[in-house]
Each structure stands twice: as C-alpha cells, then as structure tokens.
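Researcher: Go.
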Amino acid sequence: MTDDTLLTELAEQEERLVFRRFTTDTALDLGAFLLAEARRRGLAVTITVRKGRQRVFHAALPGTSLDNDEWLDRKARVVERYGQSSYRVGESFRVAGSTFDEKSRLDTDLYAAHGGLFPVTVVGVGVVGSVGVSGLPQADDHALVVEVLDDFLAHGYDS
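Model: Structure:
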C-alpha cells in the first residue's frame, strides 16, 4: 500500500465510522464490546473510551502495564487536538517527509501520534470523544479499533 493510499483509507474510515448519537451509556457499551473482542482474541491491551476528555470506560487486560495507560493518554491528546485518528496524524507527518515528534512543536511527553486512538464523531455534531487501545503494534492497535467500531455501528448500538 502506498503512503497516499494509506492516508486515503484512514480518512475514509473516519468519514464512514460515525455515530448517530453518543451518550455515556453508548460509551460504556462500546467499551464492553471492545473488551469482549479483545478477550476473545486473547490480546494484551488496555482500552479507553472517552466522552469529551472524560474517561468513561477503562480496562487493562493481563500483560499490560501503566505504560499502556500513558500511551492512551498521549494518543488521546492527539485526537482531541487534531480531530483525527492518532495513526492518521502520525502518518500525515511521515508522508510530508518528517515526523510528528520533529515538526508538531508539541511536547512528546504529552502527545503521541501513534496508531490506536480513533475519534468518536457524531453526525451533525463532530468529534465528541475517542476510543482506543494500546498494547499491540500501532497498525494493529488501529485495525482492532476500526474492526470493532465497524461491528458496533453495524449492529446499531448507537441508537
């Protein structure tokens, strides 16, 4: 896959994976849905679902550590600031010939543009939160979140 193809795919995912509504109950349901899938696959990940900046759902599976919590916080700040997935932001800098760490002018102790956090977007409203995981390679973190969001939204859990 070319760099431009990846960026196009990441943007398409964000356009497609939108919620009709996103309440605290929706956030809890999404977290439980993601947790069940991670357990089913036997993954060592930490999960977060946020409504605004509030952590509504958090789970750390065996094999994770405090480092995963900190990665989630850093990636969530990127989503909050840019309104895009943390993976897309990082790839955008890379495709432009640099890195997020070199060119963003943001404190890398607070921000990480690595895959795993995805914006929660509500139709007609915009980005209202985020959902993500930490514990796998960045492309796998991102792919897990996208797959789960696809299933969650396809089943109408955002009604």
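Model: Helices lie at 3-16, 24-41, 66-82, 86-95, 100-103, 138-154.
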